[in-house]
Task: structure prediction
Amino acid sequence: MVEIKNLVKRYGDLLALDHLNLQVREGEVFGLLGPNGSGKTTAINCMLALLKYDRGTIRIFGEEMTPESYHIKQQIGIVLQNVAVFDELTVYENIDYFCGLYIKEKQRRRELVEEAVVFAGLEDYRKVRPRKLSGGLLRRLNIACGIAHKPRLIIMDEPTVAVDPQSRNKILEGIQELNRQGSTIIYTSHYMEEVEQICTRIAILDHGRSIAVGTKEELKMMIKTGETVTIEAVALTEEQLHAIEELPHVFAVDYERQLLTVRCTRAKHNLIRILNYLQEQEILFGRVFSELPTLNDVFLEITGKQLRD
Ligand SMILES: Nc1ncnc2c1ncn2[C@@H]1O[C@H](COP(=O)(O)OP(=O)(O)OP(=O)(O)O)[C@@H](O)[C@H]1O
Result:
C-alpha cells in the first residue's frame, strides 16, 4: 500500500533520511519506532509530499506520490504532531469542516461527524471551542478531524505525546478500532510500549535508516538476549562476577550499585542456575527480576544505545 525506496532527505549538511526503505501492507497497523531525531516526522512529511526530498521514490496505492496527487491524498487521513484546528469553530464545527473537505453529501457527512465525535469521546464538548479543552481532549479533537471521513490510509505522527493516561488509552483503543473498520495505519512513536501494544509490524529507525523490520516477536528473535535477570546482591567479587559470566547461556554481566544484571540467550532455567550459584557462594541477595526482551533490548543490541537516552 505504501512503498518507500532509497529515500534520502538532507537539511543542509544534516542527513535526516539515509536511503530509507519501507513497505506498508494493506490492513496493517505499521509502527515507526525511533528515538527523537531519528527521522520519523521527516519520513511522514515526505510520504505526504509536504516536504521535498533529494532522492528515492514513494508510491502509495500503487502510484507515485507527488504534491499534485489529490486523488491519493483524498484517501489519506493525517494526524500530525502539532494540533491544527480552528479556534473560531466549535468541536463539532471543526470536525464537520475537515470532513467536508472530502465528503460533500450532507446526510452522509452528518453521520460521519457524529461517529467521529463518539469515537473521540467528545460527546460532552460538541459546542465547546478548542481553547477551552484540556491537552488530551484537544489531541482527541485533532484526531477526530483527521479520521472522520474514514480514509483508507491513516498516518499519525506521535499522537499521544504529552497526553494524560486516560486520553492515551482512548487514542490507542481508537486506532485499533479504526484498523478493525478497515483503515491501514502508519503510526510513529518513541514509546516502545505503545508500539508493542497496537502495531502489527514495526520498523525501528535510527539516524534516518530502518535498522530492523518485523512483528514484535520477529524483532525480539533477531537479538541474542532471550532473558535479562536482575538481582539485588551485596558485595560480589570480581571472581564471582567472572564465574557468573561463565555459566551456560550467559553472555553479558553488569554489576553496579549492588545491582547485578545478567543477559542470557534463550534457554530454560537461566534464573535458577544463577540463584543456585549465589546460594552456593553464600551471597546475600534481595529482589530478583527476570524479564523477556523488550524493543529497547532490540534497539540496544543493534545500535549500542538505549531507545530513550
Ligand atoms: N526543518 C529542519 N531543518 C533542519 N533540520 C531539521 C529540520 N527538521 C528536522 N531536522 C533534523 O532532522 C533530523 C530528523 O528529525 P525528525 O523531526 O524527522 O525526527 P523524529 O524522529 O520525528 O524526531 P521527533 O520525535 O523529535 O519529532 C533531526 O536531527 C532534526 O534535528
